[in-house]
Task: inverse folding
């Protein structure tokens, strides 16, 4: 016997806000059913019935892909169907994704003149995904209760969380519609849980413009920048959030400190603006595995851009320590995405990101025109999964990097760019030369400390300014059709 919430038949909508309200109603009823059942079970008062609730869905049918002309039509790269037929997706956390869902619903209604059907799917919500950051009911379970949990509730099913849609390998089963979104609801929920674990902050705090770094020095500067913004009455940022969900608000003396917080593996920090239009920064640590991991999960939040700021080895004799490298191509020897995104797939530079980064370098350094080439080189960046590539026999890596015309080498940039391409998130890379191992200038403590003092603050300010420029020019300019295939999903 399975007990579910009261059934609500599908309803049709031509208004995006009304459709969103129905999704919110169905989702709240479903998760409340599971939360109450779990609380009863933990207290030893359960009835012994199996409890189940399913995700809401949105579905539409279109006989034509022709788009209706709209006043001031901006021809976005998303918000329309690539073929006639039936399209659908499951939905989760309509509180967190309210703005996003409302926009996607509205574009589909406006572009195709269709009704949206909202109903309850057949895909169960895992009970683990119904609880917030401060709910730790599983820790209260006895070993016997934990063993019976699977008999009474649906647990996460990894087979429902693959990235086949994003990878272009998805095949709809008989009777299923084509996907509307890159991610199903279970996949989104899984990543939201992972973000809490790896960054130490709730998904609600993440902003739509993201910086990644591989050094704590950058985070130290970002923390100082965040606290300074909160002390500035004219700052456009309303809050600064640190791991442990410690919130500092502008003009309000903070009662909390992050000194006692045990930092997670990839700590996240957030300069918050209205509409999630601020800046998030994450220290991903070293290596392509971390870079893939965090971008796999942040991608479900559908950010408008992410940029890598990090250190690299300069491969040219003409480069100096502290010079910048703006990546316009990537050599992928990171190996972590070879199955999901074959090596024969090119990872193009995106003009909007490149221009913003170059403008930011010029603005922050106060160097213009041809002189800019003196401190910043545009070229190919190679990323490797072998930190000690210099020690491999026969100089094979050096030959490959030379053949590729690479000007710099690191361990994360190609992964972040490739996952941006894979998940349709605009991406870019601006690195700073911290050593030149091929030319005898290896990274030694004294040299490194001097370099960090000289360059980290400037490099960070360039990255922040680049994201501000992207925000100012508007996201309509940002989402490139280069990232969309000819049979793309409609959601951004």
Result:
């Amino acid at each position: 016997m399975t007990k579910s919430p009261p059934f609500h038949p599908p309803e049709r909508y031509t208004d995006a806000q009304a459709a969103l309200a129905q999704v919110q109603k169905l989702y709240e009823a479903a998760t409340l059913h599971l939360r109450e059942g779990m609380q009863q079970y933990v207290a030893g008062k359960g009835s012994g019935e199996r409890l189940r609730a399913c995700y809401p869905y949105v579905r539409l049918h279109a006989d034509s892909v022709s788009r209706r002309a709209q006043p001031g039509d901006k021809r976005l790269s998303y918000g329309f169907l690539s073929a006639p037929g039936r399209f659908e997706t499951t939905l989760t956390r309509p509180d967190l994704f309210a703005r996003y869902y409302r926009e996607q619903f509205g574009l589909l209604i406006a572009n195709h003149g269709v009704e949206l059907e909202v109903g309850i799917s057949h895909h169960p919500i895992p009970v683990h995904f119904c609880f917030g950051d401060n709910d730790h009911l599983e820790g209260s379970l006895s070993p016997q209760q934990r063993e019976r949990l699977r008999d009474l509730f649906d647990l996460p099913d990894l087979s429902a969380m693959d990235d086949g849609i994003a990878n272009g390998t998805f095949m709809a089963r008989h009777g299923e519609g084509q996907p509307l979104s890159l991610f199903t609801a279970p996949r989104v929920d899984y990543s939201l849980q992972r973000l809490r674990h790896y960054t130490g902050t709730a998904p609600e705090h993440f902003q739509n413009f993201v910086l990644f770094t591989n050094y704590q020095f950058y985070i130290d500067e970002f923390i100082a920048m965040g606290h300074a913004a909160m002390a500035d009455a004219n700052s456009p940022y309303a809050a600064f959030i640190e791991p442990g969900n410690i919130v500092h608000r502008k003009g309000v003396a903070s009662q909390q400190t992050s000194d006692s917080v045990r930092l997670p593996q990839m700590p996240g920090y957030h300069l918050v603006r209205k509409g999630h239009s601020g800046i998030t920064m994450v220290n991903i640590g070293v290596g392509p595995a971390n870079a893939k991991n965090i971008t796999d999960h942040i991608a479900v939040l559908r950010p408008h851009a992410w940029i890598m700021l990090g250190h690299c080895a300069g491969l040219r004799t003409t480069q100096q320590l502290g010079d910048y490298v703006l990546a316009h191509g990537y050599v992928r020897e990171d190996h972590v995405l070879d199955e999901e995104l074959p090596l024969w797939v090119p990872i193009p530079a995106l003009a909007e990101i490149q221009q913003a980064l170059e403008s930011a370098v010029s603005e922050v350094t106060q160097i213009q025109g041809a002189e800019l080439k003196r401190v910043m080189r545009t070229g190919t960046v190679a990323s490797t999964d072998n930190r000690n590539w210099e020690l491999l026999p026969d100089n094979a890596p050096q030959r490959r990097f030379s053949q590729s015309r690479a000007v710099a080498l690191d361990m994360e940039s190609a992964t972040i760019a490739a996952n941006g391409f894979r998940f349709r998130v605009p991406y870019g890379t601006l690195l700073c030369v911290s050593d030149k191992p091929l030319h005898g200038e290896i990274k030694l403590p004294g040299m490194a400390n001097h370099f960090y003092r000289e360059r980290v603050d400037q490099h960070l300010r360039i990255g922040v300014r680049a994201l501000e420029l992207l925000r100012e020019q508007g996201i309509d300019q940002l989402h490139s059709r280069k990232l969309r295939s000819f049979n793309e999903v409609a959601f951004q």
Observations:
- The two ends are 40 Å apart (CA to CA).
- The longest strand covers residues 305-314.
